[in-house]
Design a protein that fits this description.
Elements lengths: L2 H10 L8 H24 L4 H21 L5 H25 L3 H24 L10 H27 L5 H21 L4 H24 L11 H18 L2 H4 L26
Helix pairs in contact: 2-3, 2-4, 2-8, 2-9, 3-4, 4-5, 4-6, 5-6, 6-7, 6-8, 7-8
Length: 278
């Protein structure tokens, strides 16, 4: 590969994870971990939501800066950002819903609006919100901003559904799991936009993780298993770390370079064969 091709490969290589079944499994684990971890800080340790937000924001900001500055995909860093963002999103959603008094439905509506605005601005600025096109710092900034809003939304949405009369955390998990099954069916058996389905699944995995996390650590009176939040968080973190370390990097790593300037140029798609833009 020529030096010129190597430069194009580095410039166009994506630093976000490949969307595979392993990705979705890790995403659910990470979101469940974010729920139990944030609840451990804000509720079990009694720090409150404002202090919890401040504590969670510091590692998130540092990890996010590192993620944007690095030149290649690093699984530990990527999933570290995802967990830190989910933990922060949980504390933010709980503060919005409870401390500010707008309720679960109000918080859900506010955050749905923020997700839609983020996606609209992203598309307006760059022409596509497809994850395969995240190959520049600007696109990556929009990517993580949208994820932050979606992770925060997921907590509010999960709590709202679980709090409905006759519902509960386990039933809420079933509801969101069923919704994800519908998205999967649309993916395999229809021609619905893959980008739309990706973001639908991305949003839905968060309330699934939130309800699963609450089911694990809430008291028996609240419909949970009353597992210690730190214990649950530790087990989930160990499972996620194991997947990051054991799954072959080629199944976790960033997308292929957009313009085909990889190690084997003949085997890579040209610009005319780029992924669909939505």
């Amino acid at each position: 590969m020529s030096f010129e091709a190597a430069g194009r490969f580095q410039e166009n290589a994506s630093k976000v994870a490949k969307v595979t079944m392993v990705f979705w499994a890790m995403k659910i684990i990470a979101t469940t971990l974010g729920e139990t971890g944030a609840d451990a800080l804000t509720q079990q340790e009694g720090l409150g939501y404002v202090a919890g937000i401040a504590i969670c924001a510091a590692p998130f900001v540092l990890l996010l800066i590192a993620q944007i500055l690095v030149e290649r995909f690093h699984p530990l860093l990527y999933w570290g950002v995802m967990v830190a963002m989910t933990t922060l999103g949980t504390a933010l959603a709980d503060h919005l819903d409870r401390d500010l008094g707008i309720g679960y439905l109000g918080g859900t509506l506010v955050l749905v609006s923020l997700v839609l605005v983020s996606l609209a601005l992203w598309r307006l600025a760059l022409g596509s919100v497809a994850v395969e096109t995240v190959v520049s710092p600007k696109a990556e900034a929009f990517y993580w901003m949208t994820i932050l809003f979606s992770q925060t939304l997921g907590t509010a949405l999960g709590d709202w559904v679980a709090d409905l009369p006759g519902s509960g955390y386990l039933l809420g998990a079933v509801v969101f799991g069923s919704a994800l099954a519908v998205v999967a069916a649309l993916y395999f058996w229809t021609s619905v936009s893959r980008t739309v389905l990706f973001w639908a699944a991305f949003v839905l995995t968060r309330p699934l993780g939130a309800t699963l996390g609450d089911f694990l650590d809430k008291s028996h009176d609240q419909g949970g298993l009353a597992i210690d939040r730190w214990l649950a968080s530790g087990v989930l973190a160990a499972v996620l770390l194991g997947l990051v370390l054991l799954v072959p990097r080629r199944r976790l790593g960033g997308q292929e370079p957009v313009d085909g300037a990889g190690p084997d140029d003949a085997a890579c798609p040209s610009r005319d064969e780029e992924m669909p833009r939505v």
